[in-house]
Amino acid sequence: MHKRNNKKNTGFTIIETMISVSIFIIIIMAGMGALLNANALHQKSQSMRSILDSMSFTMEDMSRNLRTGYHYRCYDGIFPWNQDYAQTPALNTPQSCANGWVLVFEEANGETPLTPAPNTDSNATDQWAYLIGSYNGKDGIFKSTKGGGTSEVPDWIKLTPDEVTIDVVASGFTVLGAEAPSTGDLQQPFVVIRLVGNIVYKDTNTPFSLQTSVSQRGIDR
Predict the structure, then answer these.
(1) Which residues cross the membrane (predicted)?
(2) Are 207 and 57 in contact (CB under 8 A)?
(3) Which class for 156: exposed (0-12), middle (13-18), buried (19 or more C-beta within 10 A)?
(4) pLDDT at residue number 3
(5) Whole-angstrom Cα distance, residue 67 to residue 75?
(6) How far apart, in whole angstroms, are the C-alpha atoms of residue 211 and residue 216?
(7) In the chain, at which end, N or C, are there fewer CB atoms within 10 A of the end residue's CB?
């Protein structure tokens, strides 16, 4: 007698195959979503890092030039800045302030003019200046290497990226001891720079607060 083979042919049914493929597709889609999300977060962090590096560069630029400069003249609410003040004799007179938004100074290689500005003496317009606030419809930090230019032709260059908005009320300069020793002020010039604002990138608002202090490297003149 022959024994009957009771073993049945085994394999996947159509339903089992469809379920397996569906689970595989779900896993792949979840993995792709996680990968795309991680890539988006990486790009965002890289962009934020670039913006923060730009802010650090701005702070370093102000600190380095102020440290080696002299004749700080600070403008605040008591001595408000007006573009008509650019390239005028007043820029050559050192002045402290408690919460300024424009700071003018002689660059390390700059010289005070022999005669009042405006004139043919190029030293009358070689002051550098930093402005924290609004200019030409934009908020940010601006720099000039010509004493702010003139009222007709301003000379302000924006240092901060467009993604950065500056809180002009909380930000500013505090300048102590800027006056010359001949006025009785024997304190070495000292500047505190405060920058408060927000970085707006792809509908994400990230607040920041930076502060640094600078002391004039040379002897007070």
Answers:
(1) 12-36
(2) no
(3) buried
(4) 53
(5) 18
(6) 17
(7) N
